[in-house]
Design a protein that fits this description.
It is built from 8 helices and 12 strands. It is α+β, with helices and mostly antiparallel strands and about 325 residues long. The strands form 3 sheets. The protein has an 8-stranded mixed sheet. It has a two-stranded antiparallel ribbon with strand order 1-9. The chain has a two-stranded antiparallel sheet with strand order 5-6. The two termini are about 25 Å apart. The N terminus is likely disordered.
């Protein structure tokens, strides 16, 4: 992982224990140790017909699409509520698979989550995007076995979240909503969407799609809750001043915009691996690509300190 001084990660360092990552402010502030906080459950407090209470470790989901009026919630979390630990992977990349481990407040809207993903994955935010939520329901006949060996139906899309500016006003799809009106908690704590925890049952599938042309799909996996002292330990700031959105670990150089999806990305990486690789591709990446780099491309290098400096402005 990156050291306190400005540096980039490498193939060897990117596999270090993620919770041992160097903080984004380590070069400026002394490092403080996290207090040994107990992992007591904290209740979520919310108002209205969609009110949900759940243990701190529960990330829940369940079943039916509801009307727009019932879907939007105005709930606010208890101030002591812990962040989600979310592992996001670009499913069309390998060697390495581009991944980022993020700590995100439950009150973060999906609009802000989109901003965080653009920063974390080094995208240039020049294409359309959307989030989709799919759930699998228990069944007794036709279906597939999940990780726990239980029979489940094929995933059914129950919600699509898009930017309010990109939504078609005439779109009558019941499951399409404004991403700025939904928080992570609104989705992850909905017991009526299968009534199972995301981490253990794998019955909810949360996907971030970016650039509908190249079709970059990012699989979002909620690992659980972060320790309440984690951000303070990593940033050196007291809890009330600690950064809200934080990248803790990851792997892989940001993928190039408009490179032609998986085949184009592989061709580009191969061009930079060879001293006499395709010069035209190299020049395009260095000088024309929206998120290119004049220094070239190393598939394993990325700068976590830079990512966190840019994430610091994103607040719930």
């Amino acid at each position: 992982m990156p050291k306190a001084a400005k540096s980039t990660t490498s193939k060897a360092s990117s596999r270090v224990n993620p919770l041992g990552a160097t903080s984004p402010n380590a070069a400026k502030k002394h490092r403080s140790k996290a207090s040994d906080n107990s992992k007591e459950s904290s209740k979520l407090s919310s108002k209205g017909p969609q009110s949900v209470s759940a243990p701190a470790d529960d990330v829940t989901a369940s079943g039916k699409t509801q009307s727009s009026d019932n879907l939007v919630r105005t709930a606010k979390a208890d101030d002591s509520e812990s962040n989600y630990l979310v592992l996001v992977s670009n499913t069309l990349t390998f060697d390495p698979t581009i991944t980022r481990l993020l700590s995100l407040p439950p009150s973060l809207t999906f609009g802000k989550f989109h901003q965080a993903l653009q920063v974390a994955f080094g995208w240039a935010n020049c294409h359309m995007h959307q989030f989709t939520v799919e759930v699998s329901s228990p069944c007794n006949d036709h279906g597939h076995n999940n990780a726990g060996g239980r029979r489940h139906s094929l995933p059914k899309r129950v919600l699509t979240l898009q930017s309010g500016t990109s939504m078609d006003e005439e779109d009558d799809e019941d499951d399409t909503e404004d991403e700025n009106r939904w928080t992570l908690r609104d989705v992850l704590e909905r017991k009526e969407w299968n009534g199972q925890t995301v981490a253990s049952a794998a019955d909810m599938h949360l996907i971030y799609e970016y650039d509908m042309g190249d079709g970059w799909e990012h699989q979002i996996n909620v690992l659980g809750r972060a320790d309440k002292g984690l951000h303070s330990a990593l940033t050196g700031f007291p809890p009330e001043k600690a950064q809200q959105v934080l990248c803790i670990a990851g792997e892989g150089h940001p993928c190039a915009e408009d490179c032609g999806s998986e085949p184009g990305w592989e061709d580009l990486k191969n061009a930079f691996k060879k001293p006499r690789g395709d010069k035209e591709q190299k020049d395009w990446y260095k000088n024309m690509c929206a998120n290119g780099d004049k220094k070239g491309l190393d598939p394993w290098k990325w700068d976590m300190l830079d990512v966190n400096e840019r994430l610091e402005s994103i607040k719930a």
